[in-house]
Design goal:
The structure holds two protein chains of two kinds.
Chain A (H helix, E strand, L loop, with lengths): L2 H22 L15 H10 L2 H4 L16 E3 L2 E3 L17 H10 L22 H12 L12 E2 L8 H9 L13 H13 L3 H4 L31 H6 L4 H10 L12 H7 L6 H11 L10
Antiparallel strand pairs in A: 1-2, 2-3
Chain B lengths: L2 H50 L6 H14 L2 H4 L16 H4 L1 H21 L25 H6 L16 H4 L4 H19 L5
Helix pairs in contact in B: 1-2, 1-8, 2-5, 5-8
Classes of the chains: A mainly alpha, B mainly alpha.
Chain lengths: 301, 199
């Protein structure tokens, strides 16, 4: 083959490749987190929905909100939810928004150490960059406090954090939150909330010996909560049998009232008081619709 | 049968009946408070659909239900919980007597909320449609700052307790559905801490 021809061929080949590359070459990179403008109001709403405030505050202590939650006693040790105020050393004041994003969505601390699954980050992986920026704005707006709830005490061998890397690999994926085009907007919004940020499955899905959720038992209840607590099954059939409708469940998430006139206990009252009671009526109805597997949120459903 | 056997038998029967008496007494008390809880639950059930908008609002029914709850709240409730009264099928947790002040505080708060709801009955429903959470609806405000969403700021404190000095007449100024929520969340706050999980 003549060298000139070979050269031409090479040029044509390169040009062809470039064409393909050009077509898929990403331009206009998504804005980096730090460049996004956060909406603190919306972020506060997500922090309520996500239970950040509920878990990282301990109203029974005399400490201000978000300076650290009540200790959670588990078979692996006692976890103390940390201070999330902007304090430099006690809180998250020294963090960047990228640290915050990695902590919330991936469960990895700024120093690279994996968090324990007592922090339900697996349910927060679906939060968008904008969601994160909004939450960051909300957290930056709270008053700074140095006081904390103390240190976690994890028992051996669970105190060896490297084991958590294996745990992450096996269990760190949350239940699906992606939109299903076959279902209504309300059902999809409900799925995003229930399976995602509201993390109902953190309690209502049973866990195995390693504290990993049994995916096949999603929302089927558990009798092995920290402290020996029990929670009921909340799959659509279970809820229907217990007499819930979309309307009554949406109202239950606001008031704590059950179909028989009884009210929630065993910690669900707190979930309502600190979390779902703060949500919009529309979001509570969406959660109820998804949980009951209905597309409609009207009174008749 | 010797005299000794007679005495022993008699003592055995006496001790049995004492046990039976004590037991039936406890059962009676447990039953009494379960009935009281049922009375309150029934009252809540009657008016809940009016508060959620599922049924037409009936002022008289709301007042009557609130009064029925008020009668069972406060000391009427706490005197049905003597220390250690945990006999089957009671669902009370022993912690109740370790935290007796808090327990009685919530029982008194329930009475305040129920009396408040009775006064608020004439105010009707506030309705829904707030942009932000309905906790703000309890305050009659539609807007809440991001700060108060983060730090609290509803009518209830984080632990389910009312702010100090909250009175029934203050609650009586609220829309009835807001007062009702303060009442039901008080029930829940107590159930959260002092009632066993359902089986």
């Amino acid at each position: 083959m003549r060298p000139v021809f070979t050269g031409l061929l090479a040029i044509v080949a390169v040009a062809g490749l470039s064409g393909v590359s050009l077509a898929v070459w990403p331009i206009g990179e998504p804005p980096r987190l730090a460049e996004l403008e956060g909406d603190a109001q919306r972020g506060g709403y997500l922090a309520r929905a996500g239970g950040c405030i509920a878990c990282h505050s301990d109203p029974d202590s005399s400490r201000p909100a978000l300076t650290g939650g009540a200790p959670i006693k588990t078979g692996f040790g006692t976890f103390v939810p940390p201070n999330l105020t902007p304090h430099e050393t006690s809180g998250i004041g020294a963090w960047s928004i990228d640290d915050f994003a990695r902590a919330v969505r991936q469960g990895v601390a700024p120093d690279g150490a994996p968090y324990y699954p007592a922090f339900p980050y697996a349910f927060y992986g679906h939060l968008s960059d904008q969601d994160i920026a909004d939450m960051w704005a909300a957290f930056q707006g709270v008053a700074t406090h140095e006081v904390t709830g103390g240190e976690s005490e994890i028992t051996f061998p669970f105190n060896l954090r490297f084991g958590l890397k294996l745990w992450r690999a096996a269990y760190a994926e949350g239940p699906p939150t992606d939109a299903d085009p076959e279902r209504s907007e309300a059902w999809n919004r409900g799925r995003w909330l229930v399976n995602g940020v509201a993390h109902c499955g953190a309690c209502h899905t049973d866990r195995n010996l390693l504290g990993g959720r049994r995916a096949s038992r999603s929302l089927a209840g558990s009798d092995d909560l920290p402290g020996g607590g029990k929670v009921p099954a909340i799959r659509s059939g279970d809820l229907g049998q217990a007499g819930w409708t979309v309307s009554s469940l949406a109202y239950g998430l606001k008031s704590g009232v059950m179909p028989d006139g009884d009210t929630f206990g065993s910690g669900m009252g707190e979930v309502v008081r600190h979390g779902t009671a703060w949500l919009s009526e529309e979001d509570r109805r969406a959660m109820a619709a998804f949980l009951l597997d209905k597309d409609e949120t009207g009174d008749g459903s | 049968m010797t005299f000794k056997q007679l005495v022993l038998g008699g003592a055995a029967i006496a001790s049995l009946s004492v046990t039976a008496f004590a037991h039936s007494g406890a059962t009676g008390l447990v039953k009494e408070r379960m009935d009281a809880m049922k009375t309150m639950g029934d009252a809540v059930k009657r008016i809940k659909p009016m508060m959620s908008g599922e049924a037409a609002y009936d002022e008289a029914a709301v007042r009557e239900a609130a009064q029925a709850i008020a009668e069972e709240a406060g000391t009427a409730m706490t005197e049905k919980f003597p220390e250690g009264s945990t006999d089957h099928p009671s669902e009370v947790l022993p912690r109740t007597w370790d935290e007796w002040d808090r327990f009685t505080g919530l029982a008194e708060q329930l009475e305040v909320a129920a009396n408040g709801l009775a006064r608020a009955a004439g105010n009707g429903r506030h309705g829904d449609g707030h942009m932000m959470g309905d906790q703000s609806g309890m305050m009659g405000q539609d807007m809440m700052s991001g700060q108060s969403v983060m730090m609290g700021g509803g009518m209830m404190m984080g632990n389910g307790e009312f702010p100090e000095h909250m009175t029934a007449s203050q609650i009586g100024q609220m829309p009835a559905d807001g007062a009702f929520m303060m009442l039901t969340q008080t029930c829940s706050a107590c159930h959260d801490h002092y009632r066993k999980d359902d089986d």
